[in-house]
Amino acid sequence: MVHCLYETGRNEEGARYIRDYMRGRNASTPMRIHVWWHYALFELYADNIQEVLACYRIGIRRKTSLRSAEDLDAVTLLWRLALIRPQLDLSAYWRSLYQDWEPYLEESWYLFNDFHAYLTYCQVGEYGRADALLDAVLARGKEVPEEMVDVFLGFRSFTTGDYADAADRLARSYHRSFAMGCSNAQRDVVELTGIEAALRSRNYELAERLRESGRIFRHRSPVLDEYAARLAALRTSERHTQGVLK
Fold first, then answer.
1. How far apart are CA 33 and CA 53, in angstroms?
2. Which long-range contacts (CB under 8 A, 24 or more apart) does 230-235 make?
3. Rounded to 5°, angle at Cα 86 from 185 and 70
4. S-S: 181 plus which of 32, 53, 112, 239, CB 3.0-4.6 Å?
5. DSSP structural state of residue 106
6. What is the largest CA-CA distance in the chain?
7. What pLDDT digit, counting tens, does each position of 199-211 carry?
8. Counting beta carbons within 10 angstroms of the beta carbon of residue 209, is it exposed (0 to 12), middle (13 to 18) or buried (19 or more)?
9. Is the CB of residue 211 less than 8 Å from the CB of residue 198?
10. What's this model's pTM, rounded to 2 decimal places?
């Protein structure tokens, strides 16, 4: 039901549905953290940022075990928050999250989990650890599609501020990101990051192509309307620059 509401862009209805569903349930509720992640996603696209932060602290980071796999959803929610509201200081959240993912390098075994650990390492500037993890992934003996390597390296480039490289890598690979597993909702972070990278590198053509060929902009929401406005502003700016050059 939650995925259906997400896929049809019904953010307000989705948030209300989860609030009603979770009322009276406790920490033993199956997939509790993931259900709250879906709630936070609905609120994020509706631009209810304080609600998202509260959900992160109370619903998603309130773990039932020390396993790093319980932090999968925390990583990409925090990443989305950083994309959409870059003025937020999330550094303390990232450092706390890194402490839980730090041991994962020694137990790397599954690509989806690897991706989240890698993001966390890059986000806190632990690039040596991130590179070692990617080396371990490639050395496991299982074939890793080239597109998935691009996804990893694209996110790395984004954290170093090389937005042009990030946009190029993610634009040519996000349609193949299903190789890591998980749901459409979870993989949408790849497309969203690609669009943000294209905007920051002022590559209007690429940003527009991602918008037209991807999933994110199929529906309206306050946050997605902001992206559309930024894209329109970039288009106007590019046209003005071309006119001046002529």
1. 14
2. 230/199, 231/199, 231/204, 231/207, 234/199, 234/202, 234/204, 234/207, 235/204, 235/208
3. 45
4. 112
5. G
6. 65
7. 999 999 999 999 8
8. middle
9. no
10. 0.92
Number of Cβ atoms within 10 Å of the Cβ of 125: 13
Q: Which two tokens stand for residue 88?
A: 């937020």
d(CA 106, CA 133): 9
The phi-psi region of residue 82 (left if phi > 0; otherwise alpha if psi is between -120 and 50; otherwise beta) is alpha
pLDDT in tens, 75-117: 999 999 999 999 999 999 999 999 999 999 888 889 999 999 9
Q: What is the 3-state secondary structure (H, E, C) of 10-72?
A: CHHHHHHHHHHHHCCCCCCCCCHHHHHHHHHHHHHHCCCHHHHHHHHHHHHCCCCCCCHHHHH
Q: Rounded to an integer, what distance in angstroms lies between the CA atom of residue 222 and that of residue 207?
A: 18
Q: Tokens standing for 163?
A: 């937005």
Taking the C-alpha atoms of residue 196 and residue 198, their distance in angstroms, rounded to an integer, is 5
Helices 146-160, 184-200: inter-axial angle, 10-degree rounding: 50
Cα separations in angstroms, 238 against 130, 164, 202, 204, 221: 36, 16, 8, 8, 26
The values of phi and psi at residue 63, to 5°, are -85, 160
